[in-house]
Amino acid sequence: MAETTILVVDDEDSIRRTLREILEYEEYVVEEAVDGVDALDKLRAFAYDLVLLDVKMPKKDGMEVLQTISQEMPEIPVVMISGHGAIETAVEATKLGAYDFVEKPPELNRLLVTLRNALDRGHLVTENKRMRQTIVEHREGDLNPILGNSPAISRIKDTIERVAPTEARVLITGEPGTGKELVAKWVHHQSPRNEGPIVEVNCAAIPSELIESELFGHEKGSFTGATKQRIGKFEQANGGTLFLDEIGDMSLSAQAKVLRALQENKITRVGGDKSIPVDVRVVAATNKNLLKQIEENEFREDLYHRLSVILIHVPPLRERRDDIPEIAQTFMVRLSQRNGMEPKMFDDDALDQLKQLNWRGNVRELNNVVERLSILSEGQSVGADDVTRYVQPGGNRGSAVGGMISRFDSFSDFRDEAERVFLQHKLDQYDWNISKTAEAIGIQRSHLYNKMNKYGIER
């Protein structure tokens, strides 16, 4: 069992000696400080479990020390002791964060009970802090960082830090594949709502006739096929963040209901008549020009202003080419680990070539290219020849196909990999709109979902 260490701070030798004898008899480990300055030096050098702190002392009095402890090490419980007991002093000490206040000479039983209770509270605070930190580390471990240090990306990171702790709504704009969803997740992660859910809705992937049911839920029997009650995304996100991706593809009727929900903080399920309060922060994203859509009466101006309290624009990759080396190497490590391979390093010439490409698919396209290079390139590094062969238009397609085929032992394995790459490409091409992708490749949406599950395809 770990020892409990108490720091006794008092300018009188006799008081310190008496308290030491009492506490050591109770099997506490005791250290002493003769004044406020000595106490703070010891506190900054060692993590004590509790502080017994005198009020009246030279150099720095107990109230000043208490204030510093509350600011720098609030998890340490402090019990104030004083031979000049006054209600005003006790009240002030409590406001500054003291656990309790006892008068000299302390009554033994009361002192020991106070110390035990204070230690229990300190242990609870420390354990809660440790648990919260574990949760944050777990979540952050699952959350990819925003890569790059270009001026544009640095501004985005700074904006997230400033806006995340507030309740302000955020509208994220940018081309497909730039990382708008990641920005939304970081806004949620750094917000006071991060212990609540973040619920994502891709407005472009949901048929217009179903979007209202998806967002607000529906009651049983409210329409054909509504065989049971459904809880919508607004209710699912209660206490957290609702991320409306591709908001520009939402129907005008759904826009009107979203606007009403934002104004009233209430929703009504489809087919219901009961108003349900919701506590939701909305973050939206789009790759469309909403101002142009407003001019063409395709998007509500009042909803735009509700959503765009804070605007964050994510630039295309071609406008921040200096970030490509960091992104490419990070993707290489991540994707190699996922595929059970040793990560390879890009040489400088390969990175220079990657920086010159057009990147119409932005970061998402770079992710796919890096995975291709991690699988097809030979040796322990990726060189300029690999980029020319496997990435650049007009490269040696015969060599590329031959290199790929040689890595598979059976036609079935090769066919599966080809289908996986094809589906990934088509999903990227249609910005992960499941309905449009399924229609374009001539299969049903349910079949596309099944294949995505089979090959572990995730956005």
The pLDDT mean sits at 85
Give the end-to-end Cα distance, rounded to a whole number of Å.
48 Å
CATH superfamily of the largest domain: P-loop containing nucleotide triphosphate hydrolases
Q: What percent of residues adopt helix (DSSP H or I)?
A: 40-55%
CATH fold-type name of the largest domain? Rossmann fold
Outline the low-pLDDT stretches.
Answer: 133-141, 394-404
Count of extended strands: 16
Q: Give the count of helical stretches.
A: 20
CATH class of the largest domain: Alpha Beta
CATH architecture of the largest domain: 3-Layer(aba) Sandwich
Radius of gyration equals 31 Å
- Structural class based on helices, strands and sheet pairing: alpha/beta
Total of domains: 3
Q: For the report, how would you describe the main beta sheet?
A: 5 strands, parallel
Strand content: 5-15%
Outline type: extended
SSE layout and pairings?
Layout: E1 5-9, H1 13-25, E2 29-33, H2 36-45, E3 50-54, H3 62-72, E4 78-82, H4 87-95, E5 100-103, H5 108-142, H6 151-163, E6 170-173, H7 180-189, E7 198-202, H8 211-216, E8 217-218, E9 230-231, H9 233-236, E10 241-245, H10 252-264, E11 266-267, E12 276-277, E13 281-286, H11 290-295, H12 301-307, E14 310-313, H13 324-338, E15 345-346, H14 348-356, H15 362-376, E16 381-382, H16 384-390, H17 397-405, H18 411-429, H19 434-441, H20 445-455
Parallel strand pairs: 1-2, 1-3, 3-4, 4-5, 6-13, 6-14, 7-10, 10-13, 15-16
Antiparallel strand pairs: 8-9, 11-12
